[in-house]
Amino acid sequence: MKLWRPRPTSPDATLRRPLTGPDRKRAIEEAIPIPVEIAGAWAWRILAVVAVLVVFGYVVFSLREIAVPFLIAMLIAALLIPFKGFLIRNGWPRWLAVMVVLILAVLVIGGLVLVVVTQVRNGLPNLETQSIKAYSNFQSFLAAPPFNIDKSQYTIDVHQISTALQQSGTITAGSLVVAKTAGSILTGTLLTIFATIFLVLDGGQVWTWVVRLFPRRARPAMTGAGAAGWTTLTAFIRVQLVVAAINAVAIGVGALLLHLPLAIPIAIIVFLASFVPVVGAVVSGTLAVFIALIYDGPIVAVTMLAIVLGVHILEGNFLHPFITGSAVKLHPLAIVFVVAAGAFVGHIPGALFAVPLVAVVNVMILYLVRGSWRTGVAPGTKDVVSSE
């Protein structure tokens, strides 16, 4: 392949008269090197793809109060639908399998919430007492050298800050934000419940309806790509469930060995937060470190911090490379940067959905590029999610 076009054999003849029409176009094409032309063709196509992604991201962000509950429902459904299929394959009626799956999901989630509420309610009075004691110790620490800040001056400063916040309207605005957030959480919870029910009931028909929006010739490819993406999503949610359970057990057992209160709620919070890969367990584990600092002082807090960091090292160097990475077909370094980018763009929801979204899109694109749908490969088989 030649990277440069041959020049005109007679440049004098070309320059003898002005170039117009087809001659001008041909001269311009001959003057542009082929590598530059290829780079330009790639550039405008990449810009078009980026523009579509930006518009799509803007629409999703604008409708985040609807999109986030639906995405959460997708993750829950990806965990429940394989179990429903297992029951159906073992002779259960479809309606009974759906009912059992949904009831079990409600019982598990409701049980976790009940345990957290009960444990926190029982341990809250002691936590308040210890918090007041820790606050008093902190005041005494500030009163000692080299700070030499007496309690009266400290109280005056706190009062001045509180007065300034009240005058600026920050507290009122904060109350309105809390009320709005509570309403959004309630609405999102209801949307998540309804979306989960319908996805478990008839998720396949939902994707079939989406495929019908594409041209008829593209429907087989989109059907197979959807099956590939769904297989990857179910694999991700299963392995992330294992990773979350390991993180929760490790940090919860560490809290119990250190005789920390609220060890079970801490473990449950770590379990739920661990669905955000890499950073979820560490961020939620800081709660255990904070409680250890309040109850037992800095030595126990440092010990708890060492346990949390140990779990983080285990997750980052073993669980994700060998479990999550193999399931979602992403390198551990890519997982870290994807989580960071998702958190930067969409905060907590972005960090939660970044890895499964990128993994699903990656597998769907690979399926379409390889053209497996042309050879009649059945959607949902192992070949669909092969990374080779």
Q: What does the model show?
A:
The structure is a single chain. This protein is mainly α and 388 residues long. The chain has a domain at 214-388. The chain is 82% helix and 0% strand. It has 12 helices and no strands. It has helices at residues 11-15, 21-31, 34-62, 64-89, 94-143, 151-168, 170-211, 219-257, 263-273, 280-296, 298-328, 332-370. Helix 4 (64-89) packs across helix 7 (170-211). The radius of gyration is 29 Å and the shape is globular. The two termini are 28 Å apart. Mean pLDDT is 77; it is low at 1-5, 11-16 and 378-388.
The proportion of residues in beta strands is under 5%
Average per-residue pLDDT, rounded, comes to: 77
What structural class should be given to the helix and strand makeup?
Answer: mainly alpha
Uncertain regions: pLDDT < 50 for 5+ in a row? 1-5, 11-16, 378-388
| Helicity, as a percent range | over 70%
Distance between the termini: 28 Å
Number of helices: 12
Q: How many strand units? A: 0
Over all CA atoms, what is the radius of gyration? 29 Å
Summarize the helix and strand pattern as letters. Answer: HHHHHHHHHHHH
Please describe the biggest sheet, giving its number of strands, its sense, and whether it closes into a barrel: none
What best-fitting shape do the alpha-carbon axes yield? globular
